[in-house]
From TrEMBL:
Alphabetical list of InterPro entries matching this protein: Polyketide_cyclase/dehydratase (IPR019587), START-like_dom_sf (IPR023393)
Gene3D superfamilies found in the cross-reference section: 3.30.530.20
The protein's name: Polyketide cyclase / dehydrase and lipid transport
Amino acid sequence: MNTLLIILAILLALIVVLALIAPKTYHVYRSITVDQPPELVWEHLKFLRKQQEWSPWAQKDPNMELKFTGEDGSVGAISQWNGNKDVGEGEQEITRIVEGKRIEQDLRFFKPYKSQSDCYMNLDALDGNKSKVTWGFSGKNKFPMSIMMLFMSMDKMVGKDFEQGLQNLKDNLNNGI
């Protein structure tokens, strides 16, 4: 019996230590330069429906169910999705717009697990009628997910999707889509 209590105490102490050292937050972002003027690029960032044209998750499940509510391209507009195991179920809501510069969204996942992240897209004008797009998201790692993040990387899990999405956006813009 004493051995069992000692083992349980050690396990509990280990969990507490891991929880204390585990990352409490995450921030993942990627950027790309596009050979198009910011005014044109902005139209592909601002509208939730247009985002589906370059979203890497739309490619992972072309049959996912989509529902849009509110006035697309304005604060309060929501895109809801329900897809296969690669995309899960969730919604994104536009929470802030700095016209022509930045769009912020609340990203809420329901399946495969519940989570919430703050998502953003920044648009910067560059010389020569070029644009820089930065796409990212950040959030908090709650217990016990925070302990799992000691062994997993949110950057590795999502970074490649952001890179693919930005490349899709660039390709679409260069092809006049």
